[in-house]
Predict the structure.
Amino acid sequence: MLDFIYYPVSAILWFWHQAFGYVLGKNSGFAWALAVVFLVFTLRLVLYKPFVKQVRTTRQMQELQPQIKELQKKYKNDRQQMTLEMQKLQKEHGFNPLMGCLPVLLQVPVFIGLFHVLRSFNRVGSGGGFAGFGHSGGMTVEQNANTANYIFSPGDVQSFLAARLFGAPLSSFITQPMSQLESFVHDGAGMPSKAAIAAVSIPLMIIAGLATHFNARASVARQSAEAAANPQAAMMNKLALYVFPLGVMVGGPFLPVAILLYWVSNNIWTYGQQHLVFGKIEKEEEEKKQIALERRAQNAPKPGAKPVDTRKKSAAAKTEAVADTVDLDKADAPQAAQNGAKPAPGAKPNTAKKRSGNRGRANQKRRR
């Protein structure tokens, strides 16, 4: 039913086993363990960009908390309008809530796929596996060793069953029935003991639980005070800090060694990736703040300079405009008088004397 998940997961696991098996030997437990670890790293590398978007979305959500609270207070009696206003606010700021949970959602099918593929290396006995996922059951030891497991050939299945990590098969778990432990007796490898499986599983369970707690603790420490004060956020923080790590400890005896190894590797990657991404984003925000401060400093008045009074400046501009208008009127008045036009209101009349040429001619006529 979920073959579209099982085949890609088994293909990535097969690739890394071929790579490490070439160096360490195909039946080496460390080769198979490293294949599981690098399956995790491959997945997380693919999900790196969605993780960065998730972090940015979370920080953006924290920045929008004051506006969201105002909307909730304003439209507390109108759920429909509040939903519309929230969607409008998210659209204005380019906020996508789905990006906040996308990386986690994408890891779930991979976890299910890896769990199923690892359990399907051992299909001896009966039972449907843990939580409905796992081997189909009903095979004998010989049938199981000679049946392919998705992309893995029968030879790969035999190699996996013979591999040991400090004496424990990778698909074994503490509560595994003895009938299934018989399938690990292959190529000279004896039946693994419960003590050997517990000696490997219990430290991995403790490390996985502690890593889950410290990753959650680092995430909670980066939350803003307003976000942490939210009742829903506070409840989720408690679940992440205490319930989820405890869940790893409680469910550990039912999980194969390889799944516990997957959990530890995933948390180690998450811890390093969080510090890298958060450090990068905080550095970007500091640079933006520095640029904003520099711009503000450039626009601020110099030390000792008086602030510019815009009211005086506008009054002076009006006075200059009136003076310019009067000067223009004075300049145009003589020309208007010569043309027989009336002087402009407020302008002095033209008192220029007439030329004496006409008077001389009149006097000459009288003498004659």
Q: What stands out?
A: Confidence is low (pLDDT under 50) at residues 127-133, 352-356. Residues 67 and 368 are 106 Å apart (CA to CA). The two ends are 139 Å apart (CA to CA). DSSP finds 15 helices and no strands in the chain.
